[in-house]
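User: Reviewer 2 asked us to show a designed sequence for the structure in our supplementary figure. I'm pasting the structure tokens here. Could you produce the per-position amino acids so we can include them in the response letter?
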């Protein structure tokens, strides 16, 4: 039975009482998970809204604790790493990872970066061996599927697009995906939010449809193959 780990990074609610704008990325991700759970209601589902409940930033003490051997860690160091341990445990058991994130200042929100900093951890999600030469880091997790759902105020961030060089969100997610253990990555993108025109409406509608269709396709594949 697969486990879905759903991470939302927007600071907004799906329906936002304090603004005319709700979170588009969260809405699209909800379409994915709702459709998946329609097909497979008994699968385990883990949810974290890190946009509104952000993980702590790592600190000098955090780094020192990470590089202290387990048998030598103090109680304080174990406490410092408790959140990281919990987040990594959730990631480890996940088969499907859904990450929704708006593009903030052309990159990922600080809350999402904090989540990655807590989970990309030596001897937990990667190891390090200088015998590998110039590529000493190697991921320890594998076999997972990542669905990256992003929303942008502008447009043209795709390969060959007019703002390709300004896209620091999806390239960053692609780079970090291997440390999540993601062998397969799907991308669903909504654009034109700042323009609030027909292009935006079409982009959102297309992203919502893509999310539903992808969830149905992947859920069916799991049901038929068991993987």
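Assistant: Here is a per-position design you can include in the supplement:
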């Amino acid at each position: 039975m697969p486990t879905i780990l759903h991470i939302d990074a927007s600071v907004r609610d799906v329906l936002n009482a304090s603004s005319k704008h709700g979170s588009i990325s969260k809405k699209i991700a909800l379409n994915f998970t709702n459709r998946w759970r329609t097909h497979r209601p008994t699968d385990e589902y883990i949810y974290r809204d890190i946009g509104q409940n952000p993980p702590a930033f790592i600190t000098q003490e955090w780094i020192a604790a990470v590089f202290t051997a387990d048998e030598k860690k103090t109680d304080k160091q174990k406490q410092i790493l408790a959140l990281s341990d919990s987040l990594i445990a959730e990631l480890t058991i996940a088969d499907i990872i859904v990450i929704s994130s708006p593009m903030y200042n052309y990159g990922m929100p600080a809350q999402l970066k904090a989540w990655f900093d807590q989970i990309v951890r030596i001897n937990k999600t990667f190891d390090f061996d200088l015998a590998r030469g110039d590529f000493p880091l190697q991921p320890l997790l594998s076999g997972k599927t990542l669905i990256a759902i992003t929303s942008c105020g502008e447009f043209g961030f795709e390969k060959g697009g007019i703002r390709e060089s300004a896209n620091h969100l999806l390239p960053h997610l692609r780079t970090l995906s291997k440390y999540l253990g993601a062998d397969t990555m799907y991308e669903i993108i909504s654009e034109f939010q700042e323009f609030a025109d027909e292009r935006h409406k079409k982009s959102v509608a297309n992203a919502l449809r893509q999310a539903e269709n992808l969830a149905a396709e992947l859920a069916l594949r799991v049901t038929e193959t068991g993987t």
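For the response letter, you might also mention the following. The helical segments are 24-39, 60-66, 75-80, 82-93, 110-119, 170-177, 198-225. DSSP finds seven helices and seven strands in the chain.
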